[in-house]
Amino acid sequence: MKTLALVRHAKSSWDHADLDDHDRPLNDRGRTDAPRMAARLAATDFVPAVILSSTAVRAATTAQAFADALGVPVEHDARLYGVAPAELLRIVDERDVDSILVVAHDPGLSSLAQHFSGFPDGDAIPHMPTCAVAVFDFDVDAWADVRDARPVRWTYDIPRAS
Q1: What parts of the chain have a pLDDT lower than 50?
Q2: Which pTM was predicted?
């Protein structure tokens, strides 16, 4: 069994137009949503072996909130900044663990969540808003097999759901 959790970074600030996109911090809502969503995920008893995060400030800050709530270390990977779904799965495949939480960006996360949830059918995930959390369980032995697998179950949570 492999479990992949996808977390889109929390809401970022646009207050400093001179900042590079990579350096944008979280805004007030993002600083509130990240620990709240992390606590909600922790309440499900899901604990990944590792958290992989984009090096962008907004993603790294979000990842740290999840690390604090879950008691799991964060590994920063610059390749996750603007990553496409296929590349994200290749990065995950480099880890020899059964569960991973990835904090990254759109449009890649929404595309991957849509793919695994069966969008546009039924209750599938149409979009990953900021600080959304989607967790997918796969009945496979290797991360390489996740690409073409359908999850045996999945969950989806967004900050405005509470």
Answers
A1: none
A2: 0.95
